[in-house]
């Protein structure tokens, strides 16, 4: 498996990161353009806060872990300055999107803007320990915790009381964010939080009967037989399983490691399109028609996160099933998502594997899953003996 | 063209309407099931208010215009009773969705629930003139007018002031609703409203330069170069053009008729997939990647509304281009959307015309576009000499 290492490293450092370095900075107003077409031309100038934050995180992380390239640090700090100046409303919550100049467009209805902002400033503090970065990160983290039970706040359209669902996305992201921010958090808080998020992911949202992770369950953890309750997102579940593997390493928890590997593999068997290859975006756990029209599309992040999971699972367990799947998903991913003509990868394929949006970045795709995935696989393969 | 008549009539009365009569009534709790799989089995029991209302409208309209079948009236009144009892919140706005028993699930964030409720009770009043129906319809209509400038109310996620967009959907639906409700409205109100909605559709949202109808424009009517501002939905625009044709007949406006026909044909040329056939769901008017992942799918309602437009346009103008296009769209629609094995039509095809959700009804597809389209084409062909 180790022979894959160079491909991941070279693609990251020789192609993907230079693409974002060259194409995304807004030298006039600060922050990053993320709406970039196949060749890297800007086709829209709006700034989506979570994508801004993810890019700050990415360049801070690379500076810390790959090499102290001053251009990477400048890149991270430029995005951070834009977020500091324009990102938050009066109560400190992060808007969802801004205009090119930083005027707020969409309210802070989406707590993932805050999650990635906390993660960004935490990573930046590691490489440039300014108190303001630390403060912004921990303040944001505490606001996230206080908004946990009602993350959409007044923007929720659900009538309270009839069918109170909770979503997998928040415990999942907290399981990663808590490790990312451990250097800034009180050890007691980490010790309190971690068992809770592991329990939510592995006991509450992981349905014991089917072995599948559900995207939404009732507040008491039970199954809700409705569109949202039946929804599964294999890529989301598999990504969460590599967060669980990281936690299993950090806290030396072999049982968690084994369950995360088994769950990830089971989800992959379930989500793999045996006819055309690739992993479905959404499936209804009872086999009914999913509500989402894009259910059978093949998305870049799903495949990159699956490669990270499989590399880590193989490195930790030596399980040949992980190796076999890694080879299969690697082959599909590199053949279908990587653009042979221009840098960065395609994001959106139809069921048959044909590119159906040729963009390299947009409203939902930025400098994150491709470079993080390449980095994580590279680093994991380095550890293989 | 008249030889198509029997096919539309027979499909409506011999297959589609019997399907909804047999499969959708909830004999226990009232209202209708709309989540019906390929064979007509219920796979979800939630009740989506606008689909409930559309079905009340459909059966009332058929009773008034096709034949006074008492089973059709019972069907309409059962749905109306469910909506009367459970549909509204304390201020009289219609929820978006309810559980099977009628408990509210999703708040009245979507004014189209109200639009279709007003339309439903107005049509029901025509065939069963109970004052309560009339009152509910006109009260709802006046609430819609008062919510016109801020239809999403507190559920809007847009930060006011930065980029105030208005959406094509509301003037479009009002152009139809005002005619539908004319028998209940003060003639002065109709005379006030109609020129305004025609102006919005044909001058404000119809972009003079490109000849295309935009889904969103700035409050002052100007183009906004962002994802929402560049968005076009050919089916939506073409549907609006047959509403304009109805208005042109009602108010004897030949200039409107000619512009509506020209705009509909231009939109169809623009929206037709010359490689695989069928009409795209969404396109970016500048040719950039659309935000919507389902942009290149082929949806049932788009094609049915286009057939209605083309039939009306041909009947009014005798223009051979309309005939030619009708034949082409008819062939695509009947070959791809009609299910040869079970009643009712498929709703969702991928770009290549393959069925990608086999449902006959769901959260967004109910007893509406297929039967209304079949009925409208049938009736229009009846008028051809």
TrEMBL record, chains A, B:
Molecular function as annotated in GO: isomerase activity
Keywords on record: Isomerase
GO biological process: carbohydrate metabolic process
Highest rank taxon of the organism: Bacteria
Entry keyword Repeat: no
The family this protein is said to belong to: Belongs to the N-acylglucosamine 2-epimerase family.
Protein name according to UniProt: N-acylglucosamine 2-epimerase
């Amino acid at each position: 498996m180790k022979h894959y290492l160079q491909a991941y490293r070279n693609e990251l450092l020789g192609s993907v990161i230079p693409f974002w370095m060259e194409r995304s900075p807004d030298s006039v107003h600060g922050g990053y353009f993320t709406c970039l077409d196949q060749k890297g031309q800007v086709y829209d100038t709006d700034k989506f806060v979570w994508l801004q934050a993810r890019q700050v995180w990415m360049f801070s992380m690379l500076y810390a872990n790959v090499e102290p390239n001053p251009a990477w640090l400048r890149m991270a700090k430029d995005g951070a300055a834009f977020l500091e100046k324009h990102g938050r409303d009066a109560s400190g919550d992060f808007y969802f999107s801004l205009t090119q100049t930083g005027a707020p467009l969409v309210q802070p209805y989406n707590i993932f803007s805050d999650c990635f902002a906390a993660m960004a400033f935490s990573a930046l503090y590691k490489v440039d320990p300014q108190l303001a970065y630390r403060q912004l990160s921990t303040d944001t983290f505490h606001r996230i915790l206080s908004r946990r039970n009602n993350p959409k706040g007044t923007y929720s359209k659900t009538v309270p009381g009839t069918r109170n669902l909770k979503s997998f996305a928040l415990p999942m992201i907290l399981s990663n964010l808590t490790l990312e921010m451990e250097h800034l958090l009180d050890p007691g808080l980490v010790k309190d939080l971690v068992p809770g998020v592991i329990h939510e992911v592995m006991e509450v949202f992981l349905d014991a009967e089917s072995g599948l992770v559900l995207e939404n369950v009732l507040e008491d953890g039970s199954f809700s037989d409705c569109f949202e309750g039946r929804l599964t997102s294999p890529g989301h579940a598999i990504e969460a399983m590599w967060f669980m593997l990281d936690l299993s390493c950090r806290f030396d928890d072999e049982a968690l490691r084994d369950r995360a590997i088994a769950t990830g593999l089971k989800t992959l068997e379930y989500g793999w399109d045996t006819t055309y290859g690739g992993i479905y975006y959404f499936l209804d756990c009872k086999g009914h028609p999913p509500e989402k029209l894009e259910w059978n599309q093949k998305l870049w992040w799903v495949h990159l996160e699956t490669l990270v999971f499989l590399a880590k699972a193989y490195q930790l367990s030596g399980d040949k099933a992980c190796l076999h799947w890694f080879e299969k998903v690697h082959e599909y991913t590199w053949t279908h998502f990587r653009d042979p003509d221009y840098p960065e990868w395609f994001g959106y394929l139809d069921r048959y594997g044909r590119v159906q949006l040729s963009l390299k970045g947009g409203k939902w795709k930025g400098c994150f899953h491709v470079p993080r995935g390449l980095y994580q696989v590279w680093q994991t393969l380095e550890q293989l003996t």
